[in-house]
Design a protein that fits this description.
Layout: H1 26-39, E1 47-53, E2 59-65, E3 68-70, E4 73-79, H2 83-90, E5 93-100, E6 105-115, H3 118-125, H4 130-138, H5 148-161, E7 173-187, E8 195-202, E9 205-210
Antiparallel strand pairs: 1-2, 1-5, 3-4, 4-7, 5-6, 6-7, 7-8, 8-9
Helix pairs in contact: 4-5
Length: 213
């Protein structure tokens, strides 16, 4: 059974990525690919791997959801007291990775992490469904729980309380923005000779290079 893993093969041949096709700015290139991902109706296209490391250098990765991108960077929301929040506080650097298998593409973004403003966190929090707002209150994310029942009961009680009083965004919940320093676009190609175009920020301009697959 295990030996069958090594025999898994898939030839990538849907698209190419050349230096002439690549935009001069990685955000513009990301936007171009993003529009194509949306047109292709990729399921949860905004799902991305977030990799962080704390002060001890031990890495950790998990899937989070992109909620906004602009020239300033890439935004996601979470509990600031979560394990990833603690790691970011200790070491405000991170890597994001998108894998859009339907288009045989990856985008890797490495950069500096900082919190968004309270106004931005409020705007997104109050745009969420009530159940999601309550969920942010109910879960002490990354903390050890005695059992599932405690979480369900805490959620049910807070949801009931919300019938009489509007939910307020917790101070320990909000957004982070990853300001990119390196962005790599990976396009699958035949024979594993993939296209890799890397953007590296140097002073105030982007240096574009092709990397060997």
């Amino acid at each position: 059974m295990k030996s069958s893993i090594s025999h898994l093969r898939y030839e990538y041949s849907r698209h190419t990525l050349t230096e002439n096709e690549a935009a001069a700015d990685p955000i513009l290139q990301f936007d171009k690919w993003w529009q194509e991902v949306i047109s292709a109706e990729v399921y949860e296209a905004n799902a991305m791997t977030l990799a962080t490391a704390g002060g001890d250098g031990l890495p950790s990765a998990r899937i989070v959801l992109l909620k906004e991108y602009s020239a300033k960077g890439f935004v996601f929301f979470t509990n600031y007291n979560s394990f990833k929040g603690i790691q970011i506080a200790e070491n405000p650097k991170a890597c994001l990775l998108f894998f859009w298998k339907e288009l045989e593409r990856q985008v890797r973004i490495t950069g500096i992490v900082s919190k968004v403003s309270d106004d931005e966190s409020d705007a997104y929090f109050y745009s969420r469904p009530l159940q999601s707002q309550v969920g942010a209150l109910a879960s002490p994310q990354s903390q050890v729980l005695d059992n599932r029942e405690w979480l369900d009961e805490n959620y049910a009680q807070l949801l009931k309380d919300a019938e009489n009083e509007a939910v307020k965004r917790p101070e320990n919940w909000g957004g982070y923005i990853v300001q990119p320093a390196i962005v790599e676009f990976w396009q699958g190609r035949e024979s594993r000779l993939h296209d890799r175009i890397s953007y590296q920020l140097e002073s105030s301009s982007w240096n574009i290079q092709r990397l060997a697959p």
